[in-house]
Amino acid sequence: MPQLRESGNDGASQGPQEDLEQDGFARIFGIETEYGVSVTGADKPCDAATVAMAMFRPVVTRSRSTNTYLPNGARLYLDVGSHPEYATAEARDPHTALAQDLAGEQVMRQLALDAQQRLRPAYGEGATVHLFKNNVDSAGHSFGCHENYLVRRFVSLRDVERELLPFLITRQVFSGAGRLSGRGLVISQRADYLDESISSATTRARPMVNTRDEPHADPERYRRLHVIIGDSNRSQYAGLMKLATTHLVLCVIEQAARLGVESGFECCALQDPSSANRAISRDVRCGGTPLKLADPGGFTRARAEYGATGPAAAGGSSTDGGSATVDALGMQRYYAAVVARFLERYGAQVHEAMPRLDIDMVMHEWARLLDCLAAGDFAALDNQVDWIAKQTLFEALRRRHPAAAEARFAQLDLDYHDVANGTVYDSLVRHGAMRTIISADEAREAMTRPPQDTRAALRGAFVAKALQRDVRFSCDWTRLTLGSSGQDAERAEAVMLDPFETQASEDYRRLMQQLEA
Question: Which of 8, 88, 179, 437 is most buried by its number of CB atoms within 10 A?
Answer without folding.
Answer: 88
